[in-house]
Amino acid sequence: MSTAEAPLADLPGTVVVLAGGLSHERDVSLRSGRRVAQALRSQGADVVESDVDSALVPRLTELADAVVFPVLHGEAGEDGALREVLALLGVPFVGSVGAASRVAFDKSIATTVVAEAGLRTPAQVALPHEIFRELGAAALVAALGQQIGFPMMVKPSRGGSALGCSKVSRAEELPAAMVGAYAYGAVAVVEEFVEGTEVTVAVVDRGAGPTALPAVEIRPDSGVYDYTARYTAGATRFLCPAEVEPEVATRCAALALQVHEELGLRDLSRTDLIVTAEGEPVFLEVNVAPGMTETSAVPLAIEAAGWSLGRMCADLVRTAAARGATSGAAGPRVPA
Predict the structure, then answer these.
(1) Are 43 and 108 within one domain?
(2) Which CATH number fits the domain that encloses residue 28?
(3) Which of 23, 29, 157, 161 is catalytic?
(4) DSSP of 105-150
(5) Is 161 considered catalytic here?
(6) Contact 266, 83 (CB under 8 A)
(7) What pTM was computed for the model?
(8) Active site residue: 23, 25, 32, 191, which one?
(9) What is the DSSP letter of 222?
(10) Do 87 and 188 fall within a single domain?
(11) Which residue, 163, 192, 221, sits at the end of a domain?
(12) 25 is known as an active-site residue
């Protein structure tokens, strides 16, 4: 009998689905949270939906047997701070611990760790706003063009949903792209634009070890997988399994699993990558709280794997409850 077909066990206690927050991705988080809550209720779970506000800690204190399922996108839910608070309160939760989340959330740090592990990543430079302002755009534009080359990608170092991200094809476009990235954070990442097929691979651990789900190929109608393409129904085609050769799909799965391990992640992650014309996967970024909306990739991969979203979420809750409020994974393998 497969894991997906195993008999259901009683779900422990109350599941508190955290969604919303004050990040730029609040609306997406609320949509993801509603879907996860519905999926858990379909499995008979006692679910409480909660925002992150002053009532959260008293609410968790009153629910002595609670397990938290964070579905917070952006800084509030992915930078590790909230997860450290949950550990401090002794509340079991689904997902990666604070230290691992903090590294994964910062694209400049995560890319460095992944590159140190021997995986291919884009050439990248991280520039704080103060440096860009003080040294002057003209000098830095010339240096970036020489080191990174055009086209290039500019994005906030910390953030998600492609907010503040721009593809830059000419030097004169770079200053505006940098300003756009700085609108979402104090550090901008400028990296090599890698041509190829965009795919994303989810890794799930339902209690028996991490498993890579089928790769999802992403084909935005506009040619750019930006915020609109991600969350507007019909604006992007998602192909699952991705239309790549079997050996390429195997490489993508192996990369996602290695990223999950190297960064010390647990339970659930989603790795975004580009497959080059030669069939080589290139790491772009990793997400510890992937979207669960109707237009998100992870639910598609769950379905392609023959699972149900409800069963998967319930298994993650059981795993978290059994683990308790321990620190869990040791954290990322940060290079010296």
Answers:
(1) no
(2) 3.40.50.20
(3) 161
(4) HBHHHHHHHHHHTT-----EEEEEHHHHHHH-HHHHHHHHHHHT-S
(5) yes
(6) no
(7) 0.88
(8) 25
(9) T
(10) no
(11) 192
(12) yes
